[in-house]
């Protein structure tokens, strides 16, 4: 039963990601009304919110955009940074949403910053402890490994409210600063909804896997 759930959630995740990329391709080919690229929009949103201290860099890879709170650094992928498309300003504004969360001390962003190092360790050593405990006949060690894996898998779930809030802030800033007309707003919203659903799909996959680990934990 759990295997079926996992397979179905992974299929759903793949379908959502495919839809997200098609949405990006669609709106990435549409010029935005103000003729601004992602870098210009990001810089404008940041500066008008007194976030001149946030630096902007270009990152490698497609849709590799991210914000690093500890460094006050935002990285935009090359296409988002350079293209004056609806998709570019939507993604750039979304990353600015994270910078605004950081400025305001958004509680979920703080929690993620605390949990992330532990989740990384859980992903790195959880499987090793689980397998090692099983081979050595040490159930307690194996259970610790399962708990570590579960902690790592919880991160996509914890990320959900952060991403939805950043998208909400992004749309508000795009409207407030008159960076979108009605058509661009609809396109930016479609882009951000598609991106958000990829996090939902990822969280569903993680929860399915956690369910399997919890079942094994309970059986032990």
Feature tags:
8 helices, mainly alpha, 6% strand, 220 residues, elongated, single chain, three-stranded mixed sheet
Topology, element by element:
Layout lengths: L1 H27 L9 H11 L6 E5 L6 E3 L4 E5 H5 L3 H19 L2 H30 L2 H15 L1 H22 L5 H38 L1
Parallel strand pairs: 1-3
Antiparallel strand pairs: 2-3
Helix pairs in contact: 1-8, 2-4, 4-7, 4-8, 5-6, 5-7, 6-8, 7-8
Task: Give a verbal description of the structure.
This protein is mainly alpha-helical and 220 residues long. It has one domain. 76% of the residues lie in helices and 6% in strands. A three-stranded mixed β-sheet has the order 1-3-2. A hairpin with a 4-residue loop joins strand 2 and strand 3. Helix 5 packs antiparallel against helix 6. The protein starts with a helix and ends with a helix. The mean pLDDT is 86.
Brief characterization of the structure:
The chain is mainly alpha-helical and 220 residues long.
- Taking strands numbered 1, 2, ... along the chain, how are they ordered across the largest sheet? 1-3-2
* Tally of individual helices: 8
Mean pLDDT: 86
Q: Fraction of residues in helices?
A: over 70%
The major beta sheet can be summarized as: 3 strands, mixed
The count of DSSP E runs of length 2 or more, i.e. the number of strands, is: 3
> Cα distance, first to last residue?
19 Å
> Mind telling me the C-alpha Rg?
20 Å
Strand content: 5-15%
User: What structural category do the secondary elements indicate?
Assistant: mainly alpha
Low-confidence regions: none
Order of helices and strands: HHEEEHHHHHH
Indicate the overall shape: elongated
Integer tally of domains = 1
